[in-house]
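Exercise 4. Each item below gives a protein and its sequence. For each, produce the structure-token representation.

Item: Urotensin-2 receptor (Channa striata).
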Amino acid sequence: MNCTANTTIIPQLGLSPRAVDGGSQKSGGSDSGGLWVTSMLGATLICMCTIGIAGNTYTLIITRSAALRWTGSMYVYIINLALSDLLYLSTIPFVVCTYFAHDWLFGEAGCRILLSLDLLTMHASVFILVAMSLERYRAVARPFAVHRSSSRNGRLVAGVIWGLAFVLTLPMMVMIQLREHKPTAASSVKSICFPTWTPEGFKAYITVLFFTSVLVPGLVIVGLYVGLARRYWAAQAHLGGSIRSAQRKGLKQRVVSMTFSIVVAYWSV
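Answer:
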């Protein structure tokens, strides 16, 4: 999921003018080396796409079971998370095709849609993870309220999440344009998906994306799991002498390890 600088976005879904110029001047071993790297990258992406599609499709299949339907909102969140992953994975074949063709073949609409899907699915996935963390916290803090929570409420929250993700993605969709570029007089015309941001505007947009997709959701998830850990410890303390000190210490360590692992996994992604 790419939300870095313009020079990173351009090669992903288009064709960098610098790459075209360099490619037209290389020959022999350099061309074969570049083809080998492109082939390895393409094969890796296709493998990731295949595994991801298989895993998320399997998730959608098993979530149709009656037992999971009774989980209410969590059932809806799992489905939407899998759909978000599938939507993102659907862009990989277009990226691989662009790497091999050294040209953008899918028109201006393809530029706007495919690059926007990257940001759309990123925000949707992050917001759904926050909603799932909140649901898990409520299941511990207010179990009866969560039991009454229906899948209808989950669908409403999921709809709000997708709407908010679309609003945050819309500026990128509007500011991407398809441009044609001719590296040399003898070469053919190449196409490139090019952001039309000013440097100041792009920096401001990336700052907003950092807060909405990384910092704020990450802090919320950390806060929720720290709250979960505190509630587990409080419940453990209420048990008093019913369990031995060594058992309480082991349970506390497992809670800390689980919370730390979840937080690290989120920030590493």
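Check: The beta strands are 176-181, 190-195.
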